[in-house]
TrEMBL record:
<keyword id="KW-0436">Ligase</keyword>
<dbReference type="Pfam" id="PF08443">
    <property type="entry name" value="RimK"/>
</dbReference>
<dbReference type="Pfam" id="PF18030">
    <property type="entry name" value="Rimk_N"/>
</dbReference>
<keyword id="KW-0460">Magnesium</keyword>
<dbReference type="GO" id="GO:0016874">
    <property type="term" value="F:ligase activity"/>
</dbReference>
<keyword id="KW-0464">Manganese</keyword>
<dbReference type="Pfam" id="PF05618">
    <property type="entry name" value="Zn_protease"/>
</dbReference>
<dbReference type="InterPro" id="IPR013815">
    <property type="entry name" value="ATP_grasp_subdomain_1"/>
</dbReference>
<dbReference type="InterPro" id="IPR008503">
    <property type="entry name" value="Asp_endopeptidase"/>
</dbReference>
<keyword id="KW-0067">ATP-binding</keyword>
<protein>
    <submittedName>
        <fullName>30S ribosomal protein S6--L-glutamate ligase</fullName>
        <ecNumber>6.3.2.-</ecNumber>
    </submittedName>
</protein>
<keyword id="KW-0547">Nucleotide-binding</keyword>
<keyword id="KW-0687">Ribonucleoprotein</keyword>
<dbReference type="InterPro" id="IPR011761">
    <property type="entry name" value="ATP-grasp"/>
</dbReference>
<dbReference type="InterPro" id="IPR021109">
    <property type="entry name" value="Peptidase_aspartic_dom_sf"/>
</dbReference>
<keyword id="KW-0689">Ribosomal protein</keyword>
<dbReference type="InterPro" id="IPR013651">
    <property type="entry name" value="ATP-grasp_RimK-type"/>
</dbReference>
């Protein structure tokens, strides 16, 4: 007999582990077992040695391997545990909140082990029971009965907490402002962020077990990759990124989008295909076509631009047709690939950088060139200040980022007499200038998007087999 202050439990109960994103789990309550255990596979530690974390996955519903819930928690211990069949193993121990229903919650320690062959995904031992819990071994389901419906596509995101993630930033510049901001912001949110030098990665490419190695060791599994691939290593950097994509890692920007945006000719073709406004652009391979090339664009002044130029380098303003011909001949003599563009005079050395995250312009700044330089890049001495966009400019920036399927993009545009003209879509936009100008935490907005994306897959309904 129990009184009103006691919590009655049977030998089997529906419980919840909300901190792990497990609102419903069917557990065996066993006072004969000292230690509690939770089914886990793909167990892997990460984070600093002084405060290690563990990441693991669980199938919360027996027999439903199509639903995988990824979890992470801080490691509180590692101890030797002997199971009921006499086998001993070393297990990681975590602390998490137990939800017994009707508002009854308390912290418990639980060990992680593969219980895939067990009927229950969790074992609640006597150490996990509060003093006011009375276990009635002949009964079951004395606590509120729950349903696996919480793992449906409509409800799973609302019950899944933001968990600690293992994040890789692909960057050759660990001390740059952008890289340091991504590391700091991630760590402040409890994630583990590692900077990986893209050029020091090497790959094992095979159908069964594709791998990425770094400094003599195979890289661990990452929840997300944030690529900061420099223009000089685009080809190799995107190859490394494709390997992460093959492994199923969520990549903020995909290899195809980065490749297309880096090649200015390809990028303009993509923009044209999506009916997005840009300065009139022309390209030709033969020196015999120089005159026709200039004629397609219009009259001088003209812009001659290397296809893989960055930060304003390799971009030349030709004031006259003769000057344009001279620049084109010089670039051809260097066997360089370039395009010719109309010069938008009314922009007056001013362009606008739109910072797009997950299909939304989250910040914008106006960049003004220094002195007589027509290029407004901050790396060339330009100045920046926050600017308010028109509705058309906002739509154009979002559409441009989507054209390359980029979740993070810096879209540069000019204000012309006939609407916004896209100059470039940057797949690795810098954070410093626009965070300073806008006074916004843009790295935080990127992590908001990442935390929404790296979620467990919703439960899929089983199809009945045809008889």
């Amino acid at each position: 007999m129990t009184n009103d202050t006691n919590i009655a439990m049977g030998w089997e109960e529906w419980l919840g582990l909300p901190d792990l994103g497990l609102p419903t789990i069917r557990a065996k309550v066993d006072t004969g077992a000292r230690t509690s255990a939770l089914h886990a596979f793909d167990i892997e530690t990460f984070g600093p040695a002084t405060k290690p974390k563990v990441r693991f996955a669980i199938h919360p519903i027996p027999g439903r391997d199509d639903l995988v819930i990824p979890c992470s928690a801080t490691v509180v211990d590692r101890r030797e545990v002997t199971s009921s069949n006499g086998e001993t193993e070393m297990r990681y121990v975590i602390e998490t909140m137990l939800d017994a229903g009707d508002g009854h919650q308390w912290p418990i320690e639980v060990t992680l082990t593969d219980r895939g062959g067990m009927a229950s995904r969790m074992l609640l031992g006597r150490q996990g029971l509060r003093e006011d819990v009375i276990v009635q071994p002949t009964d079951k389901f004395l606590r509120p009965v729950r349903s696996y419906d919480v793992y449906s596509a409509k409800r799973i995101k609302s019950v899944t907490p933001n968990r600690a993630l293992r994040v890789a930033v692909l960057s050759r510049e660990p001390n740059s402002y952008s890289t340091k901001r991504l590391v700091l912001e991630g760590e402040e949110r409890g994630h583990t962020v590692e900077v990986i030098d893209t050029t020091r990665c090497y790959m094992a490419i095979n159908a069964l077990a594709p791998e990425i190695h770094y400094d003599g060791k195979r890289l661990p599994r990452y929840d997300v990759v944030i690529p900061r691939i420099g223009a000089s290593i685009t080809s190799y950097g995107t190859a490394v990124l494709r390997q992460f994509e093959t492994l199923g890692t969520y990549c903020v920007n995909g290899s195809d989008g980065i490749t297309a945006s880096r090649d200015k000719l390809h990028a303009h073709q993509v923009l044209a295909g999506h009916k997005i406004g840009m300065p009139t652009t022309a390209f030709a391979a033969s020196p015999k076509d120089t005159g026709n090339l200039i004629g397609l664009v219009g009259t001088a002044p003209l812009i001659v631009k290397l296809l893989e130029s960055t930060q304003g380098k390799g971009v030349v303003l030709a004031e006259t047709k003769k000057a344009a011909e001279s620049v084109i001949d010089a670039f051809r003599g260097l066997k360089a690939n370039f395009l010719v563009q109309d010069f938008v005079k009314e922009a007056s050395g001013v362009d606008i950088r739109c910072f797009v995250v997950a299909g939304k312009v989250v910040a914008s700044m106006k960049r003004t060139s220094a002195g007589d330089d027509f290029r407004s890049n901050l790396h060339r001495g330009g100045t920046a200040e926050a600017v308010k966009l028109t509705a058309e400019e906002r739509r154009t920036a979002v559409k441009s980022a989507k054209a390359f399927n980029l979740a993070l993009a810096g879209v540069d545009l000019l204000r012309s007499n006939d609407g916004p003209k896209i100059l470039e879509v940057n797949s690795s936009p810098g954070f410093e200038g626009i965070e300073n100008a806008s006074k916004k935490n843009l790295a935080g907005q990127l992590y908001d998007h990442i935390e929404q994306q790296v979620r467990p897959a919703p439960l899929k309904s089983k199809r009945k087999k045809a008889t």
